[in-house]
Amino acid sequence: MKTRFRRHATVPPHTRDPFAQDVFKWSADFEVPAIGEDVIIRINGIGRAKVVGYASQGGYLGVMTVPYTPPDWWIRQNGPPSPDNAALAFGAEISPIDTGEGA
Questions:
Q1: Which end of the chain, N or C, is less packed with Cβ atoms under 10 Å?
Q2: How confident is the model at residue 98 (pLDDT cuts 50, 70, 90)?
Q3: What is the distance between the alpha carbons of residues 36 and 31, in angstroms, rounded to a whole number?
């Protein structure tokens, strides 16, 4: 599996098996979030974000996300969050949001 970054318009075939070859690996114990869903990016205090697409890198499937209120360091490093400036987050780095959970 190539390590290059690649965007996907829809969720490509994937598996949760970390030893699988020639198929993208999803590193979470929950389903891949749909475009438009909110997730929590747990790493580095990034927080709540909207899923705007899908991408793969290094054999792993991830979601392209737009953080709602990223830390100041994130904005300095990446620029203002927008769909054109989305951040790649892998399954192990995010948590789903329960439908009854508030902002």
A1: C
A2: confident
A3: 14
